[in-house]
Automatic annotation (TrEMBL):
Domain of life: Archaea
Domain named Large ribosomal subunit protein uL30-like ferredoxin-like fold: residues: 6-54
Family: Belongs to the universal ribosomal protein uL30 family.
UniProt-recorded name of the protein: Large ribosomal subunit protein uL30-like ferredoxin-like fold domain-containing protein
SUPFAM superfamilies (UniProt xref): Ribosomal protein L30p/L7e
Organism per entry: Caldiarchaeum subterraneum
GO molecular function per UniProt: RNA binding; structural constituent of ribosome
InterPro entries from the UniProt entry: Ribo_uL30_ferredoxin-like_sf (IPR036919), Ribosomal_uL30 (IPR039699), Ribosomal_uL30_ferredoxin-like (IPR016082)
Amino acid sequence: MSKVLVVVRLKGNVGMDPDTRKTIESLKLSRAFTAGLFPYSPSLEGMLKKVQRYLTWGKPNKQTIFTILKRAGYVSKDAKKLSEQLENGDAELPAPLLVRLRPPRKGFGKSVKKAFKSGGEYGDRGETINELLKRML
C-alpha cells in the first residue's frame, strides 16, 4: 500500500471561503493544476476532506511517482529508486513535492462541480488518479 498521496488542485481562488483558502495555502497548492506528493497522515486526510471541493487526490502507482519525481528535477536513476521505495513505504518524503501540470488532455469529461463518487471530478479518486495525471503530465 502506498504511503504517499497525490493531491491535485482543480479550481482557482474565486469565491473561496477564507478558511478554505488558508487550508489550501497550508498545503502549498497555490494555483489551479498544481500537484503535490504528500506523505499520508490523518491530519492530511482531515485537511483534504475540508477542502475537497477544490481538490482531487488518490494513491499513485510507481510510474506516476516516477514521472512526478522526474518533473520535479530528480535524476532518472535516483527517481526510479525513490519511486519504488515510496510506493512500498520504505522511504518517506521530508516535505511535499510540488509540480505544475497542464489541464488534462481532452478535458475532464465530467463536472468539476460534483464529487468523483457522484460522477464528477473532485474528491478522493483512489487508484484512478493515475489516469488523470497521465493526461496532465
